[in-house]
Write a structure and sequence with these properties.
About 1% of the residues have low confidence. This protein folds into four domains: 196 residues, 3-Layer(aba) Sandwich (Rossmann fold), CATH 3.40.50.300; 104 residues, no CATH class; 163 residues, no CATH class; 162 residues, no CATH class. The two termini are 43 Å apart. Strand 6 and strand 7 form a beta hairpin. It is of the alpha/beta class. 50% of the residues lie in helices and 12% in strands.
């Protein structure tokens, strides 16, 4: 296998980090919280994407300086990355009307899908070209829609509503072109380019006419009541909005004139130029015209948008296509030479398409079948994981107008779950998002996939279910360069040891990250490195090291094997610096008898041949000696236990919890790494212990 040897420098609190990534494999990097794992992820992503965000990782101490700027080397081949982290969960995973944003592109729109769509769309090229070769058809369609909209919603009997723009404009006659005799003095304004503006202005001033005999517009004296009545009659005859509709519709009708039949055009001219209220027959004519316009618009739209999606739900395509032909003889009000010049080429291309109906039907049906299979496989994959992980949710990919969307279901509800982020728990969101992320990886095909602490918050069953789905499922991350950063050792245990055979296809490797003085290094984790603590204790006791260190491990061995008899109590008394060893009983600490102490020491010597309680007691009581042992200890775990012997309890509850719980009797791990090989104690804890021991670095 080839590797990327990555060097990261000057990023946040990380002065330098050297990590190796096995190509086309799963790389697990295990390390404690606060080490800088997320910084490693951000640095690699920034460099791979080349998006200019690397500078944002500049350490505070180097900001404003020309030196010490962030650098990442060793991944020049990587140009794209996809990251699973909290941002993915919160920003991209859950949408209002679908589980995952762009679920169509992720779950359905595969390269095979695109290829099939292209073949089908090529069959419609003739029709598309006919539309393209008629440049005015777009404006004509828009004008037809404007005219259709002017008819408004029809009454129950099919007649045109009085509130429609059309009847408001022409229902009482065209009084713009036919100004009433009494309003002739205002003809110049009424027939101006913007009569509605003048009418609106004139009507606003009418309220001042009753204040006296002075014209509110020109301040001239009104000589008679007739003059005042004439000014007021503008509002009676005209409505600004209706006038505006009239001019707009008249312009549209005139533009569309060439598309109307000769008789239709003549009738329309009579209507738009009428001086009186429309007759019943004229209204019936307009109603029929509306139906014709709607039929032509639908015919044009159906052919313009013909596609796989418009035929997707058609059972008999050979019966559907003939119905798409625009037959002007049945909408004869629009049967003109100009209309036929538009519809005939389109109809001709439709007829050509129908001669190859078998090919079209075959390709559409095959594509539908493959989409159905893809959807079914994705649903089964995700739903299988959700079920095995114990979740009550499932997903369903449904068809929509021009796409597909993934919806969320719950076993206790018959409706789709809207706003999944509101209903899902924190753990459910993360589990769901991880599986959805996997499918997005398959869709986007990035050069590197980064999982930033993805499963540490789950219980054991869900952790394994997620790992199994991510790296063994039908649509998994196998054979992809994947970096998993985690402070949870369980993924390493599962993939490297416990169930390693199952995950062989992911070519996994695991390393342990540690940091010292701002420099992160890694140590490979092999199968034999993951052992029970009982085995680790036994190996430590067989090493040529300090007896106090051996005693520390042996005591813990007794703890985890629930062997808290004489031997355990003797070692506990040693670390409590008791001259006379005691046994913990329900009544408190009871002093051991000499025979009990001798028996316990003899038993301990089977593990630590040179063990001597009296000699070791002298040493543990010597704080200076123990401080030197603290400094000489090679493992952080050993340092913590020596510190605990010297100081007893730390005043800082957080440090105490770390020492007593994480590394003492409450530790829940059955399997772990050897602390002599893998430094899993944060440096800040060691530094705090050194401070309390008054140890100064040389």
């Amino acid at each position: 296998m080839e590797y990327y040897d990555v060097l990261i420098k000057n990023c946040n609190s990380v002065d330098s980090a050297r990590v190796s990534l096995k190509k086309n494999s799963l790389n697990i990097k295990f390390g404690p919280n606060g080490l800088g794992k997320s910084t490693i992820a951000k640095a690699i992503v920034s460099e791979a994407r080349g998006d200019g965000t690397l500078a944002s990782l500049t350490p505070f101490k180097n900001r404003g300086l020309k030196v010490g700027q962030p650098q990442v080397t060793g991944i020049s081949e990587l140009t794209s990355a996809l990251v699973f982290d909290e941002d993915f969960v919160s920003q991209f995973a859950f949408q209002e009307d679908e589980v995952l944003k762009n679920s169509f592109e992720i779950f359905v729109k595969t390269p095979e899908y695109n290829s099939a769509m292209k073949e089908i769309e090529n069959l419609f090229n003739g029709i598309k070209e006919a539309f393209h070769n008629s440049p005015e058809i777009e404006q004509t369609t828009k004008d037809l829609k404007d005219l259709r909209d002017a008819f408004g919603k029809s009454n129950k009997d099919g007649s045109i509503s009085k509130s429609s723009k059309l009847l408001k404009a022409f229902g009482r006659g065209n009084k713009i072109d036919n100004v009433p005799e009494t309003l002739k003095p205002f003809e110049l304004f009424i027939k101006s380019p913007s009569p509605s503006k003048w009418i609106g202005w004139q009507m606003k001033g009418n309220i001042f006419l009753n204040m006296g005999d002075i014209c509110p517009y020109c301040s001239a004296k009104l000589s008679s009541k007739e003059q005042k009545d004439t000014a007021l009659s503008v509002a009676k005859e005209y409505d600004a909005a209706a006038v505006n509709h009239l001019n707009t519709l008249k312009a549209v009708i005139l533009r569309l004139g060439k598309y109307f039949s000769k008789a239709c055009k003549e009738n329309l001219e009579k209507i738009i130029n009428s001086t009186s209220e429309l007759t019943l027959n004229q209204k019936i004519f307009l109603r029929d015209l509306k139906s014709s316009i709607e039929a032509l618009i639908k015919g044009l739209e159906d052919l313009r948008t013909i596609s796989f999606f418009s035929l997707r739900d058609v059972d008999q395509i050979d019966e559907k296509l003939p119905t798409l032909k625009i037959e002007l003889e049945y909408i004869n009000k629009l049967d003109s030479e100009q209309t036929r010049s538009v519809t005939d080429p389109i109809n001709s291309q439709l007829e050509d398409l129908m001669t190859d109906i078998g090919t079209l039907t075959g390709k559409v049906n095959i594509h539908k079948s493959k989409i159905k299979k893809t959807i079914q496989e994705n649903q089964e994959s995700i739903n299988g994981f959700l079920k095995s992980a114990g979740y009550k949710y499932s997903v369903r990919i449904i068809s929509e107008l021009n796409s597909y969307k993934m919806k969320l279901e719950h076993e206790d509800s018959e409706e789709y779950v809207k706003s999944a982020s509101t209903h899902l728990s924190y753990g459910e969101k993360n589990a769901f998002a991880l599986v959805l992320f996997m499918h997005q990886v398959l869709s986007d095909n990035p050069d590197i996939v980064i999982l930033d602490d993805p499963i540490s918050s789950f219980d054991k069953n869900k952790k394994f279910a997620i790992l199994n789905e991510l790296f063994r499922g039908k649509a998994s991350l196998r054979d992809r360069t994947t970096l998993m950063l985690t402070h949870d050792i369980e993924p390493a245990i599962d993939i490297v040891k416990s169930t390693a055979r199952i995950f062989q296809g992911a070519h996994p490797s695991a390393t342990f990250l540690s940091i010292k003085n701002g420099e992160i290094s890694e140590e490979p984790i092999k199968r034999d490195d993951i052992r029970t603590f009982a085995k680790i204790c036994k190996d430590i006791c067989n090493k040529d090291i300090d007896d106090i260190i051996k005693a520390i491990y042996l005591r813990r061995h007794y703890e985890i094997t629930d062997n808290t008899g004489l031997e355990y109590n003797l070692l506990a008394s040693l670390f409590k610096k008791r001259t006379s060893p005691t046994i913990l009983s329900p009544d408190g600490h009871v002093e051991m008898s000499p025979s009990e102490a001798k028996k316990a020491e003899t038993k301990i010597k089977e593990q630590i041949s040179t063990f001597c309680y009296a000699k070791l007691l002298t040493k543990v009581k010597d704080n200076n000696l123990m401080t030197r042992k603290f400094m000489n200890a090679s493992a952080g775990y050993d340092k913590l236990q020596i510190f605990r012997i010297i100081k007893g309890k730390h005043s800082d509850d957080i440090i105490t919890k770390f020492i007593n719980e994480s590394y003492h009797i409450e530790n829940e791990y059955v399997m772990q790494l050897d602390p002599h090989k893998f430094e899993n104690v944060p440096s800040y804890v060691i530094e705090e212990c050194k401070r309390l021991l008054n140890i100064q670095d040389n």
